[in-house]
Design goal:
Largest sheet of chain B: 9 strands, mixed
Oligomer: heterodimer
Structural class of chain B: alpha+beta
Strand content of chain A: 25-35%
Number of strands of chain A: 15
Helix content of chain B: 10-25%
Order of helices and strands of chain A: EEEEHEHHHEEEEEHEHEHEEE
Number of domains of chain B: 2
Number of strands of chain B: 12
Shape of chain A: flat
Distance between the termini of chain B: 30 Å
Shape of chain B: globular
CATH architecture of the largest domain in chain B: 2-Layer Sandwich
Radius of gyration of chain B: 20 Å
Number of helices of chain B: 4
Helix content of chain A: 10-25%
Strand content of chain B: 35-45%
Largest sheet of chain A: 8 strands, antiparallel
């Protein structure tokens, strides 16, 4: 396990077809939308949840790849590895114990190692683990227009409802969908937070798994609400060292997504053109178009 | 002279008011402690301490509301379901179930922000006193876009972009507005004193938060 020692930035593109990528609890679970511009949003925590679920499914709780913040659905398949540690009993000092606990969490849990976690109780504060990977809100390329779809269920929940309808036994429901939306998220990997005694030990293998998760996470996240969601692009910028060689905004600006010629609203990924302007990127930063 | 100027900007920001932390509400402007954190993300050594003098507000102040599902618990360290028990083997498998510990929290966040931070550094010890070295390192890194970790605007999901400011700071679009009292605002945390928060009373004058002047006028209260 070699700890990463390069800074990375990445641009991640994904789209949704007739689905709701991320509901807004403040707006009756309609797709999140920026009220000022009409652009669609997907929060950072929504994407992180999918990454966690993917790793949980793929690694099946293999040692070092447990997921701390878990959804229940997957737990039944997870075989907990045996924890073997004598270290803690040997340690007498509180701060050493805290450090050992922190390191143990990082070594065993992928999500703690990647995104960090807050570990504290009332009486002893383990402080926070800051993870090297940072994601921002994903934003759609163009304004989205969510549609509300009414649906019928040929059954009712209670006998009271059945009596009220005189045996008609039907209920109406509604779904909110985005007919089509292409979203762009940007992310950062700070190698310094992975390295050293205070680092989380986030390794090259973990990084590969992260790219893999971004490529495959929608395949394990199908549901009635999501529609068809697909990863459409992952452009990774690798700097030469941990501090980096170029301002992040300059790298992000080199990735442009534009509408192709054509009328009317976009309805598929082919309506967009993704371009990476390699000329705008310094030679010291390697561009890797993963897909 | 040990002063630096850094332009920082981003799409969202949330400088949470400590009195409104559950459903987060951001201050109108960046706090000095958030500005210090951004400078430290670019360059810091234990022998120096960044002191923020001025924060220029370069975009109109606008708010937006975001509600998210968040976890309501922290990782327990002690107890049967805690880290220590799991490390010794036995106990329950260590997991935190989001369905059992869920809170939906709204956040009132700032939109489309841009600031220029003016700051200088002071020394914390007798060693390593070399103005030129620290200034050059900071300016070199800021110019190249290098950072120790990605700086952020209050919360890590709101990443900050940054670049050095050449010459004078351009005029703020808020320059013609009448001065505005920002009330008591978090200045920073006193790490020597059990992380006690320190407050000060700045004003927004001509689009600039005069941190140093507010400290001279009112000092800090904890």
């Amino acid at each position: 396990m070699t700890v990463i020692n390069n800074r990375y930035e990445f641009v991640y593109l994904f789209d949704v077809e007739n689905g709701n990528p991320n509901g807004d609890p403040d707006a009756g679970n309609t797709p999140r939308i920026d009220p000022e511009t009409g652009f669609g949003l997907v929060t950072d925590v929504c994407l992180k949840r999918k990454i966690r679920n993917y790793v949980d499914v793929v690694k099946q709780g293999a040692e070092g790849y447990n997921i701390y913040v878990a959804e229940k659905g997957v737990l039944s398949q997870t075989r907990e590895p045996a924890y073997k540690t004598e270290e803690v009993q040997k340690l007498k000092k509180k701060d050493e114990q805290i450090a050992a606990a922190r390191n143990w969490m990082c070594a065993n849990f992928f999500d703690v190692r990647t995104f960090g976690a807050v570990m504290s109780t009332k009486e002893n504060n383990c402080g926070q683990v800051r993870g090297p990977v940072q994601l921002t809100f994903a934003k759609s390329i163009e304004p989205i227009v969510p549609a509300e779809v009414s649906i019928t269920r040929m059954a009712v929940e209670t006998s009271k409802e059945a009596e009220a309808q005189e045996g008609d036994n039907r209920t109406m429901g509604r779904k909110h969908i985005v007919p089509y939306g292409l979203y762009r998220a940007e992310g950062f990997v700070s190698a310094n937070l992975a390295q050293g005694d205070k680092g989380t030990g986030f390794s090259d293998a973990d990084l590969e798994l992260l790219w893999q998760a971004l490529g495959g996470m929608f395949d394990h996240d199908h549901s009635a609400a999501r529609g068809k969601m697909s990863p459409r692009g992952l452009i990774v910028f690798k700097h030469q060292d941990a501090l980096g060689n170029a301002p992040a905004h300059k790298l992000f600006e080199a990735v442009t997504v534009t509408r192709r010629e054509g009328d009317g609203p976009a309805r598929s990924f082919t309506d967009y053109a993704v371009a990476v302007d390699k000329g705008a990127i310094p030679d010291t930063v390697a561009v890797d178009v993963k897909f | 002279m040990s002063g630096v100027k850094l332009r920082v900007w981003g799409e969202y920001a949330c400088f949470t008011r400590p009195e409104m932390k559950v459903e987060r509400v951001s201050y109108d402007v960046m706090t000095p402690s958030a500005a210090r954190g951004i400078l430290e993300a670019v360059y810091w050594k234990p022998s120096i301490r960044w002191v923020v003098d001025r924060i220029h507000v370069m975009k109109p102040i606008r708010f937006d509301n975001v509600r998210r599902n968040e976890v309501s618990a922290k990782v327990p360290v002690k107890g049967a379901s805690g880290v220590n028990a799991a490390m010794k083997g036995g106990g329950e498998p260590l997991r935190l179930f989001i369905e059992d510990n869920r809170q939906q929290r709204a956040a009132l966040v700032l939109r489309d922000v841009e600031y220029v931070i003016e700051a200088h550094f002071e020394y914390t010890s007798a060693e390593d006193r070399n103005d030129g070295k620290h200034l050059d390192m900071f300016n070199r890194r800021a110019g190249k876009g290098q950072c120790f970790q990605r700086p952020y605007l209050g919360c890590r999901e709101f990443a900050a972009f940054f670049e050095p400011v050449e010459g004078d700071v351009p005029a703020s679009p808020l320059a013609d507005e009448p001065p505005r009292d920002l009330g008591w605002m978090l200045y920073d945390l006193d790490y020597r004193n059990d992380m006690a928060p320190l407050f000060f009373r700045p004003a927004l004058e001509g689009g600039v938060v005069e941190v140093a002047r507010a400290l001279e006028r009112e000092g800090v209260a904890s």
